[in-house]
Amino acid sequence: AVNNFGLMGNVPYDSESYFIDYTSQPEVHGDKYKISLIDTCSNESAKSPFHKTMNLTIAAFGSTMGLNWDDYIDESGSFVPAKYYIYRGSAPDNMSLLDSISGSFNSYNDLNVFSVYYYIIGVKKNPPCNVNGSAYSYSNQNDNSTFVGINTPTYGTITVSPNPFNESTIISIPNYQITNNNAEIKISDVTGKVVRTVKFTNNQTVIERGDLKVGIYFVELRGERIYRGKLIVE
Question: pLDDT digits over 19-42, tens only?
Fold first, then answer.
């Protein structure tokens, strides 16, 4: 039903103010989120105004890549995006600001594109509102590989288990044949920034949490194919 909100989980009052929705599929659709609190008498407050995330899609018109996304919405009206920021890169870990447009618009045409590019849309909040102090919220990441026929890469899947994890996890690539002793897996945050590089010398390798903060990360290995996966630190 429209605006029918179900319970996703809970966070203790004295814990840090964040929650990871492991069921979310940001590459498929945006989501709306509300929060409430329960007092010491087990009374639940009214739900907060919702925030809605963005979903980015791409369509091609010849060499023009048409980007479309839905609004980032703060139901309270206290935050209305002044601009949408368009990021583009030749790889998920190599994103840079391409352009920005008024928050009144939800589409952008990237002209004369003949190579594979990755795109993400951001909004800037002031003051920052999440526990890590980031001023930005981002859409899903999307690419135009479906539409660009020249040098379009082929893809394979990276398996991460356990996932989510809080101490360590194992990254594996089924049937992967090591042809390069310098093969590396890159771990990037949601902005595309590489936060760790790990040697991959076998069909699997252990990733220790170390200084990885709570959140979602993308993993990628480039060889004859491009292998990708996602890991979640809780």
Answer: 888 888 888 889 999 999 999 898
